[in-house]
Amino acid sequence: MKIEGEAKLLTIYVGEQDHYHHRPLYQAIVETLKEKGIAGATVFRGIEGYGKRSRIHTASILRLSEDLPVVIQVVDREERIRSALPIIDEMVKEGLVTLQDVEVIVYRAE
């Protein structure tokens, strides 16, 4: 698959303890995106954050959290990203989903 030029960056913010059908939500999202043929996805585990409820979740030893923030980022062509949005909407019960324009400079695989 080749992607160059204009694309979309889909960013999904959820909690580490969020689940979808008895699996971690971030894992279910990545597997679903792969099944839909999306170019790729990366999951980042945050060390601290807060959301709508303003409760801070942190990896600090003094305030160890069991629900750290998780961010999933996906870059692909707009039509492919938009085709995945309905299932993402169904899967994410709590969290934040953003979509922004990006320019792909290099996307290579050997």
Structural topology:
Layout: E1 5-15, E2 19-20, E3 23-24, H1 25-35, E4 41-45, E5 48-49, E6 57-58, E7 69-76, H2 78-91, E8 96-104
Antiparallel strand pairs: 1-7, 1-8, 2-3, 4-7, 5-6
Describe this structure in words.
By secondary structure, this protein is of the alpha+beta class. About 25% of the residues lie in helices and about 35% in strands. It is built from two helices and eight strands. It has helices at about 25-35, 80-90; strands at about 5-15, 20, 25, 40-45, 50, 55-60, 70-75, 95-105. The strands form three sheets. Strands 4-7-1-8 form a four-stranded antiparallel sheet, with helices on one face. Strands 2-3 form a two-stranded antiparallel sheet. It has a two-stranded antiparallel ribbon with strand order 5-6. β2 and β3 (about 25) form a beta hairpin.
User: How many distinct beta strands?
Assistant: 8
Outline the biggest β-sheet: 4 strands, antiparallel
Order of helices and strands: EEEHEEEEHE
Mean pLDDT: 88
For the termini, the CA-CA separation is 12 Å
- Gross morphology is globular
Q: Uncertain spans, ≥5 residues at pLDDT below 50? A: none
Seen as an oligomer or otherwise, the chain set is: single chain
Structural class: alpha+beta
What is the overall number of helices? 2
Radius of gyration: 15 Å
Q: In brief, what are we looking at here?
A:
By secondary structure, this protein is α+β, with helices and mostly antiparallel strands. The chain is 23% helix and 37% strand. The strands form three sheets. The chain has a four-stranded antiparallel beta sheet with strand order 4-7-1-8, with helices on one face. The chain has a two-stranded antiparallel ribbon with strand order 2-3.
